[in-house]
Task: structure prediction
Amino acid sequence: MTQKGKAVLLRLYVAGEAPNSVRAIANLQAILRKYWKGDHELEIVNIIEEPSHALNDGVLVTPCLLRLSPPPVVTLIGDLSEEDKVLAVLGLKGNTP
Result:
């Protein structure tokens, strides 16, 4: 759970095995292991296999991380190598392991 008691729902859109997509998955999983102590759900969506899913969420580029809950929806585009930005999206800015 987040500090406010709400579970976090994350959706990461990737384009198959593209290098940036592979890095985004690895970076996000590493950050979650290192910093995340709460309840979360991570859904990884391959837009090559499910393009309509991406369009429904308004995703036009990959990799793209959406924090769907708690509201508001927050979007971060890129390979998620900038840990501070990912932590801010997760609501963990300033936390240490």
